[in-house]
Amino acid sequence: MPHVWPLHLRDGALLLRPLRRRDRREYLALRLRNQEWLAPWDATDPLRGAQRPSFPVLVRWNDRQSRLLLGLHLAIEWDGQLAGQISLGPIQQGAQSTATLGYWVDRDHAGQGIAPLACALLIDHAFAELGLHRVDAAIRPENAASRRVVEKLHLREEGLHRRFIHVDGQWRDHLLFALTAEEVPAHLLDDTGRGVVRRLRLEHRIPPPRGRVATS
């Protein structure tokens, strides 16, 4: 199906949607509250350090990247409150047909299964709606919580990349994990071609949401 933007992916209490200008106060408070929690894992610019763009610039950049399908950048909303962010990008189409997954979740919401469900929902969208072949994720070896997320979704570990991404002020080693569309068992695919969320629910006994997963 053609790429739709703005994009909304819903599964029960979970909603993935674009950041909006009216999110400014809530988003900045969320980042401030999680500053120490996220610092060891946040990518940094080797030329500008940890300096982050202003919120209006961030919203405009996210919107442009997502509208042009250079990447998808979405807020994670849980039960009506901002709880983190998730991204898929850069998106490489054509012969590679791949994208890189990134995510973070509010410390107060950690351990509630929000990150695996958000990742599963976006991976299903990448495979079923965008027609991508592969999704990968680069994770610092020390980040046990993030590794558990991708392991729950059956992303394979593909090896260690030395000094791969500039994080927390230094070039850091990262483990690469990946999943291809063919690795999602065909018997788990629903009538829309989604299967990653369904496998997650079955294996971890997560009750289904009320109603169907919604996409717009």
UniProtKB/TrEMBL annotation:
Domain of life: Bacteria
Record's keyword terms, sorted: Acyltransferase, Transferase
Record-linked Gene3D superfamilies: 3.40.630.30
Enzyme class: transferase
Keyword Transferase (UniProt): yes
InterPro entries recorded: Acyl_CoA_acyltransferase, GNAT_dom, N-acetyltransferase
Its EC number(s): 2.3.-.-
Domain N-acetyltransferase: 14-182
Family: Belongs to the acetyltransferase family. RimJ subfamily.
Name of the molecule in the record: GNAT family N-acetyltransferase
Organism encoding this protein: Brachybacterium hainanense
Organism ancestry: Bacteria, Bacillati, Actinomycetota, Actinomycetes, Micrococcales
